[in-house]
Design goal:
- The protein is α+β, with helices and mostly antiparallel strands.
- The chain has helices at 18-26, 57-64, 133-138, 147-151, 160-170; strands at residues 2-3, 8-14, 32-38, 41-47, 72-77, 102-106, 109-114, 174-175.
- It has a six-stranded antiparallel sheet, covered by helices on one side.
- Strand 6 (102-106) and strand 7 form a beta hairpin.
- It is globular, with a radius of gyration of 15 Å.
- The protein starts with a strand and ends with a strand.
Length: 177
């Protein structure tokens, strides 16, 4: 299982070799910190705040799924939420330093992308934007009954509850303990 580190981009790829994933992501200019395989997922961890180009692996991960049928990628950014005023209430990449914090792509399509924590999960996008909506509703992260946020202002502030749901749904080998 892979542990998350702060201020990194962690990109997973299923259906392509680790070397292909690592080589493609290294072209972004964000230094590759480590990489490996876990189960049927290859993974690459990159430094988020470097002289690299934009959001690192998010766009590259999406493009890799267009090359072959059956390829999946998942991108996780452990960067803090964006404070940039132009991206707070809309589903747009906020700025080069703050990409979407989660993106899942398959067969050339961006199936799901969203930001994590602080009720930002209600703004999901992609061709399957509601693929995890049942789990998010059950956890009271989105929907009409979000009383957990009112009862505990720190609930899911960092998006850890949401990331557990996403990791379980997509079978990502993340250690979120």
């Amino acid at each position: 299982m892979i542990r998350l580190a702060p201020n990194t981009f962690l990109t997973f790829g299923r259906g392509l070799p680790r070397a292909t994933l690592a080589d493609s992501l290294s072209a972004t200019g964000h230094p590759v910190l480590d990489s490996g395989t876990e189960g049927d997922w290859a993974w690459v961890r990159q430094e988020a705040y470097s002289a690299g180009q934009g959001s690192g692996g998010w766009a590259v991960a999406a493009s890799l799924t267009r090359r072959a049928v059956g390829v999946e990628t998942a991108f996780v950014a452990t960067t803090p939420p964006c404070a940039c005023p132009h991206g707070q209430n809309y589903m747009v990449p906020h700025c080069p330093d703050h990409p979407f914090q989660f993106a899942y792509c398959r067969d050339g399509f961006e199936e799901l992308y969203l930001n994590l924590g602080g009720r930002r999960e209600s703004r999901r996008a992609g061709s399957l934007a509601d693929v995890v909506v049942r789990e998010l509703l059950d956890a009271k992260i989105v929907g009409r009954d979000t009383t957990r946020y009112d009862a505990d202002p720190t609930f899911n502030a960092d998006g850890s509850h949401t990331l557990r749901i996403l990791a379980a749904h997509f079978g990502l080998p993340l250690d979120l303990t």
